[in-house]
Amino acid sequence: MMNYTNNKISNQSKTQYYSKTIVPPSQITKGVCGNFRKVNCNDIVLIKQHYLELLKFNRVVDLNETNCVSADIIDVDAIDENDNSFESVDQFPLFSIVKDIKTLSLKSFENTTTTTTTNEILSKEVLDHRPYIDSDYLQKDLLVVTSDSGVLSVLSWSNVKHQFLSVHFEQISPSGSNFKYIGEKIYISPCNRLVVVSAILNNLLLFTTSTNRVNSKLLNNRTTINIKETVDKITPKDVLILSVAFSYQPNNNDIIYLLIHFQNNSTKKFGLVKFQYSLSTNTLEFQLHNYQFEKQYDIIQFNNNNNNSSKKTSTTSLMVSTNLSEIILVKNDTLEIIEKIYTSVGYGAFLTSYLVTDNSEQILLSNDRGNIYRIDSRSLAIKAYDKNNGLPMLPLSMILNLGHYYYYLIGDLSDSIIIRYNSDDSFQPVIVNSNYSCITDFEVLKNDINTQILCCCNSSLIKEDSLKLIEKSISIELLDQIQVNNTNLLWTLDCATEKLIVISCLNSTKIYRLRHQDDWLDISENSPFILNIYTVYACIFQNYGIIVQVTPNKIIVLKDNKITDQWSVSSNSVIVSATSSSNSQLLVSLSKPNHFLYFEIENQKLIEKSSYPLNTEISSIYVSPIASLEHVVIIGTYQHEILIINYRAMKIISRYSKLSSIPHSIILNQLSNSHIDSGDQMYHLIVAQRDGYLLKWDISLSQLISDNEFTLISIPYQKRISNSQIQLVASNQQGIIVISPEKVYYLTSRKAHTILTKISDLPSNITHSSLLSSKNHIKPTFLFIGPTIGLSIVKLDFSKKINVSPQLIKSMDSRLISPIKILNIESMNLLLILFEKYLTIVDPKTLQKLNCLELPKFAKAISIYFWEERNLIILSGNDCRNTDRGLLLIYSFHLDENNSELLKEEQIIHLQSKIYSFITIGSNYILLSTLREIKLLNLKDSQSTPLINQVNQLSAPIILMRKSSDRILLGSWNKGIEIYQYKQQSPQQQQQQQQNQNINNNNNDEDNDEDVMIVDQNQNLQNINNNNNSLLILKREERTMTSNLMESIFLNNDRWASLDRFGNMNIKDYSEHDIIQDEEASLILLDSIGNFSYKEAFMKILPYDQNNGNKTFLMAGVLGSLVILSTLTLKIHYDSLLTLQIQLSQFSLTRPLLLNDHSVYRSELEKTTGILDGDLISQFLYLNLQNQLILVTDKYHQYMKLLNSNNYSNRDNMNIDMDSENQIQVNKLKIVQTLIDLIEKLNDKL
């Protein structure tokens, strides 16, 4: 081996990177339930290592339920008449790894008498959040969280900012410390008066809680409990704290007992120690300890300590062994075991979680095999439940109580599931939440409409579902389709006993009646509607049972299927658009002359109230269905302007005249997650233009209901989604359906930022939509129409924005289970999926199986590779007959009788050792690694036995090989990466070499002239006979001493990225160093140009997208994350986003919630450099404009450079009138929008 020299290249590359999580992790590591958003709601908080998700469980309310809660405390928003469902309220990165999380409820003792020994005021970090904390936050449940930040944090949900905010924190260790036990467990007493947290080994920290509202701390009287000093001062070894529980004295609210279960690491004995804490004096007193326990137990914590019918009373504690083999009762005053019960269940499995039912009579426990056990607290009888009792049998990590006999089972790596306990003593699965964690392989599937990620996951309940399709979209369920030709517009009229569907066609109108989902009837011929012309607008005034139809030349009023009134336009005039309020007001716009009319319905008659002339034709008109806003009409005109008019006073209260195109559709909507700032409710004015742009203004309710004029912001939010006109359809106040000729989207918001999500599986050429039913607001039913697709009835699922579709292959072939690897061959438009026993060819567009090849019975394939130069498929694996031997299976493509691609076996190559990795080089060579050596296979003639030549002896196997146009990357687990340059002979040299080979073959000289490659002293891989015409030369030029290597990829020919199993990325570059031509080779050590810590291992990196030379790479993690790595070629983009990242890491509403140091979190092995954190930068999008302007103001001159270099935005189309406002303020607005554009452009990759 060579002697390494330390020749460093300081490479200041112009290209930096932007990393963003586009699909959050799926694996759940912690979870709690509580009333976090408001009193008496049903919320779940799930921790996914470094992400937090807040869910709302919408439970079917059965009024016949036993012990049903009274109507006044039911969460009305959560009632779902059709089925139970989850709704994701919020999900965001924590920039910390959570260790434990618990629910703290302080409402039970607001009038506390607890005293405090200190008079500390709240920290600045907490005071910054106080203006946004809900006034009733002490009546709601709080989150207590520990993490690698070294901080114990207390969080409260803010309905003002729509996010969790910190209301208290305690520093328990230095930031970024890896002390194993610090914060590992949190214990909260059933009375919520004490909080105990794991501290450094042998220690616990104890806090009392307080509800004093006057700037005092929620946690007080910090006390350290040293267990080792208490139970064994002599033993040098530490004491391991296993669990903590609390007990009480009857009728004494001042004294709380702490029962601490521990193990002495010297004697290996288990014990209990008891402390007494007085709330009135804030004193802790040791009482006694007991060493008579033989194994580890969990102490079951009851919320009710006065259940007289239970063996578990206030004077005893119940303990269950971690292997579920024993249940014991311990007397609290003496810590003696007074009863021990041996069970016959649970051997070989381990207890993972437990909960006590609401009435404290039952205890439910889960183990790592998927069983659930029920212990009767009265008799201590234990019963086991398995798949015969309705359980899915997934490895369980925790079980949560959702109330009313609903339980949430959270799998270890598996899908989580909600079950219901039935009266027949069985469990019924209710909701399966598909988990896509532990992604072992993936491929990107693209077409003109969708981008989907097909993944192999090790997380499903059944093997057939391990292949999952992930798409960032709203999922749908197609209920029915009706053939209707030349459709254009439609409206749903909700009558008392039925629904009428009015469909406007090219030159006619059709009427359908719907009484049930499948009861569709065309009643056009028997209806009083005008049918021989298209309909401009239709509506129903439900309070009066009156229907109105608007056509280009007439308006009719219908009651009880009869026309009660009609109104016709004057000669040459045409009705171009119309809208209505919820309270019998109708507005129509007319041309020739241009004006709009305001009508009211009185006594089933259409009464014209007023007319408002305009100097241009109206392109769109809108009135909000909200009663308080029914006097406001919003109009778009052909002069590229928006008018907001109080039509009762006939007064324009706002005007915007700077549009780049004609406004085609207008809606005023709250959107689902709009927040409230300064007590004023916000609405979003959404305008869809005919050039495909979507614009948004935020307008307060006070501005809309006032008669005073106001000014719309000069630079609104703007996003282009099409090159043609787009249509808007409201979905109550939850969101908006956005229809373009190419795709259909759902527009909603998170905090102040609008989110546009594609609706999956809808055909193109949809022209209009209508809400059919919204009683289930999570899964409403819509009608969609188009000139070629007719009428489709579709149920949309708004509960989540990530659509995960399992069971794709199961529907194709029942033999196809346990997918191992996926390969997308874009050049052939084929998808190959490797299973345990089969190799399948799949159409990547339809995901339908084309052909299936059964593998040899002795072969166990583990990887799949496409040899592009020869159109061959290579499978590598092991020989089942001798697992120490390796195999290469080589297949070629052929067409079958149906003209479909078929794989044909060409060759099987047996090797004496396992294959760890391989690559092909050119059209002749396979370079592979076994346990101790690298081999070169020459496959010039696929019908003959390949020449197998030893290249180099190895101290460790090469686990991955990658190649670029002239370089090869070899990576080992513990030795890091070595980079080689390679070159092949010219065609003339190859021809001469072949002639020499033929001569040698004729002379039967078997060994002397083989192309045996070795590494010489100069690191050249050469012919053993020093032939100048060597087929292949390799020269090592770089080595990175990286341990725990997991994955690597060439970012370009001179640059590569590597990832270790902890998620630490390192990028290096060696541009302009053509070492292959050096006479003397030396090892070049390079400075890193990129370092970043993801805190998640990634199994694979793929080139994902290339736009104007800017490459994007996609990574899939073991926790289920999908992360993009995008290049930033413009230095001003990198500098501006880096400045913003630093600001956001310090800003009160965007800094890490658990008070971690962001730079420390992203720097594990080396200081972060060259890679921006898109997860943090994207938080800028969710701030309101006021906060965004604050950040821009702080670095105004730096951001002006970005504004001046902005050549990708269409802001110039707005024709800003510089005389209308201050130049600097305009620039600030431009900077905000430019930053938003840049961030959205980088984020919008799926």
Automatic annotation (TrEMBL):
It comes from the Eukaryota. Residues 986-1003 have a biased composition (Low complexity). Residues 28-374 form the RSE1/DDB1/CPSF1 first beta-propeller domain. InterPro entries: Beta-prop_RSE1/DDB1/CPSF1_1st, RSE1/DDB1/CFT1, WD40/YVTN_repeat-like_dom_sf, WD40_repeat_dom_sf. Residues 986-1009 are annotated as: Disordered. This is RSE1/DDB1/CPSF1 first beta-propeller domain-containing protein.
